[in-house]
Structure formats: C-alpha cells, structure tokens
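ugh finaly. both done.
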Amino acid sequence: MATINWTAEAEQWLKDIHDYIFKDSPSAALHLVEAIYNKAQLLLEFPEIGYTYKTNPDLHIRILLYGHYRIAYLIKPNRDIDILGVFHGALDIDRYL
C-alpha cells in the first residue's frame, strides 16, 4: 500500500499557515490544518485526483486544491506520495516548485 510522506518543507509551510491564523483564531487554525491533512489523505485512494502541475509534467507533480490552498505533491514510481508544500492561492507557486 502506498504511503504519504510530508517533507520537512511541507510541514513547515503547514506550521506557518497554522501560526498565522492562530493569532486571530486558535480554533480556526487547528480546524484548517486538520482539514488540509485530511484532504491529503484522499491521495491514498485517489493519487491522481489533483491536476498536473503545468511546468513539470515529467515529474508527476500534481496539485490538490483545498479552499484557498494548494497542496503540491509528487507521485513516486513506487506509488508513494511526497507532499512537497501547502501554498496559499495568492502565492506564486513557480517560485517554490
């Protein structure tokens, strides 16, 4: 069975999102982080649910949407999934991937 691995960078992005929202609403911050994590768990059953990232089609990098956030992930040859980052929709994702 495939596994989902969160890279250190992805964990840091998620922590930064949490910390930013936490300032205004601790409960909303926790809810958002849990919801993003749960959305990523869908990849275990449906690894190609996200759209192909346009600039790197050969690397099988895909983007899964959740609200205003984009979860970037890589499907590896063994079908395991690496979460590469969680980006707000306003960010230029090309700068990071």
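ok and the 2nd:
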Amino acid sequence: MSIEALKEKIPDYAKDLRLNLSAIYSNPLLSDQQKAGCFITAALTSRNKVVLDHILADFSVKISTTVLQAAQTASALMGMNNIYYRFTHLVENEHYRQMPAKLRMNGIMTHGIEKADFELFCLVASAINGCAACLNAHEHELRKLSVSEETIQESVKIAAVIHAIAGLA
C-alpha cells in the first residue's frame, strides 16, 4: 500500500482528486515531516481506514514515532476541541464562551515536535472538522511563528484532498 496504490483506487469520475493527490504529494513547499504529519492527520481525521492504511504505509517509514504520535494527538484533540469550540461560537448564548472548557488538552503542549509543525497538524484537523474558531486560532499561531501563507494553504489543500478521497469509499 502506498500513495500510488491509493491513486489507483480513485475512480475516473474523481480523476481530479487523483491529479490533486499527485500535486500535493510532490509539492516541495512543506518539509517531509510537515507533509507526512499533515497527510496522516488528514487521514485520521477523515476516518477512512483504507485511506489511512495507504497513507501510513507511505509516510510512517519516513518519520519518527514522535511525529506519528503528534499527528495522532492533533487529530484526537481537535476531534474534541473542534466540536466544543464550534458549539461555543455557533450558539447565540455568549455565556458559553466565557465558561472554562475544563477539557484536558495537555497534548497541545507535550507533543514533542516543533510547535509550527504541530500547529499545521491541528489546522488540518480543524479544517476537516469545520471549526472556524480553531481555524482562526491555529492560523494566527502559525503566522506568529512566521509560517508563510503558502505553507498554511498547502496544508489545508492536503486536508481538502485527503478528506475528499476518504469520502469516495
């Protein structure tokens, strides 16, 4: 299993996704670690085992266990945070925004990789989960860390393509 094998599974009616997968896979804008983490986070967050297995087969041999665990942490925590913070920003009752979340999120600080890379992974998960509050927070942090808009855009393109492919199966 690999990205090439995954491309072969994409039906002809979705050939644009196949082409986009090739483009995001070969784009040199992200570091190898960033690209692997974004792909893995997108696959985890999209919850498609076939897509995840192909992506893990391709990328897990290229990264450390720490990076893999950081991608898993980002997907898991954003799965929780994106629901909670989307709720607080969608309901009209502003009191919820003032209330402490009281949800454990230690992994945001203890992931063991560069902060910018982890923020990219969180941005990917937040894009898939559709939480505007979290998207804004992570994009803001990335810009504070001097990550370019092009790099941020590329990570979200990975989220978009992988999520769309995951929806085909």
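summary for the 2nd one i guess: Residues 65-90 form the longest helix (26 residues).
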